[in-house]
Design goal:
This protein is α+β, with helices and mostly antiparallel strands. The chain has two domains: about 20-60, no CATH class; about 75-125, no CATH class. The protein is built from four helices and four strands; from the N terminus they run βαβαββαα. The protein is elongated and about 65 Å long. Residues about 105-120 and about 130-135 have low confidence and may be disordered.
Length: about 140
Amino acid sequence: MQFIDLSIPITNDVVSDPPVMRPQISYMTHETTWEQIAMFSPGLAKDDLPDGEGWAVESLTLSTHNGTHMDAPWHFHSTTDAGATPAPCIDEAPLDLFFRPGSPSTSCSSSRARSTAPTISPIRAAAWGPRRRFI
């Protein structure tokens, strides 16, 4: 099976969500983080580090909706089947769900779909079945 990466990067520059839900990434450089290392080693001075450099670190604030993801029925409503069944969460989805014909991970790897994006109909059918809420 051939896999094609459909993911989008999580950066401050990719506008994929409304402002209130956009990822926020703070980049800390080698020049500004030596004090973080000193917290782990009391008495450490900047001059004790090679070239006085700390580590490069990123701090992330994310929403579960950032980046490439799959929404579970729970995202849309707490129940399915007209309220008869609790809506499944994403961790309740069987892993093979994402490798079935018509799923987002396989639609673009078929010979028919290599040049086109997957449509929602086969994705909906493969994902949760006809009685589940899936958009």
